[in-house]
Amino acid sequence: MRKKQKSWAKDMAKQRIIRLFELAATEFDTHPERSNRYVNLARRLSMRYRVRMPGELKPMICKHCHSYIVQGKTARTRLQGSHITTTCLNCGKQMRRPY
Amino acid sequence: MKITPQNIIHNELIGLDTEVVDSTNPFLVGIGGRVIDETRNMFTVDTGEREKQVSKSGSSFIFTIPPIDGKRYLPLKIKVDGRLLLSQPENRIQTKFKKKFRK
What we know:
The complex is a heterodimer. Chain A is built from 2 helices and 3 strands. Chain A is of the alpha+beta class. Chain A has one domain. In chain A, strands 1-2-3 form a 3-stranded antiparallel sheet, with no helix packed on it. In chain A, α1 runs antiparallel to α2. The termini of chain A are far apart. In chain A, 28% of the residues are buried. The mean pLDDT of chain A is 90. By secondary structure, chain B is mainly β. Chain B has one domain: SH3 type barrels, CATH 2.30.30.210. Chain B is globular. Chain B starts with 16 loop residues before the first strand and ends in a 22-residue tail after the last strand. The mean pLDDT of chain B is 82. The interface between A and B is medium-sized, with 21 and 15 residues.
C-alpha cells in the first residue's frame, strides 16, 4: 500500500526545488558542473514527493540528459513550422513544444 | 518556507555557510565554508582554496542561517549533529527527529 504523504512535505519539496534552481543560476558562470548537479537533485526531489516541476522551471532542464539549460549558452532555440525546437548543446538532442 | 532552527534538518543545506566542529578526524575540525554538494554520507565544503569532503557521521556542523530581511539583524547559528543528517538529501524531508541527538 502506498504511504500517505503529508502536505507540508510536498510544500517543503517545492521550496527546495525553487531554492536549488536559484543556486544553479548563481553557480552557472563559475562552475557549470555544479548547476547540473543541483538540477538533478531538484528533479529527484520532485519525483520522490510527486511534486510537479513549476512551469517556469520546466524548460530549464534537458529532457534527455537532465542538464541545466540556459537559453543561448547551452541550448539553441529555433522556430520550426508550428513548434519551438530547443536543441541541447550538451547531448545534441531536441525538445519540441507547440506555440 | 524559510529556514528556521526547527526545520533545518528537513531543509536544503546546499548553499549555506558551515563550520565543522567536533569531528572524530582532527584534521577536519575548523574547516569552514559553503556547502556545495551533499550525498548520503558526505558533505562537500568549498573552503575558498579547495573542496573538502567531510563525512556526516562523526562530525558536528554549525550552520549559519541567512537573516530574514527586515526582521532579524544578526545571522542565526545552529549546531547540528551530523548523525541527524544521515540520509540522502531527497529523503531527508520526512526523517524523524530524535531528541537524544540534540545538543
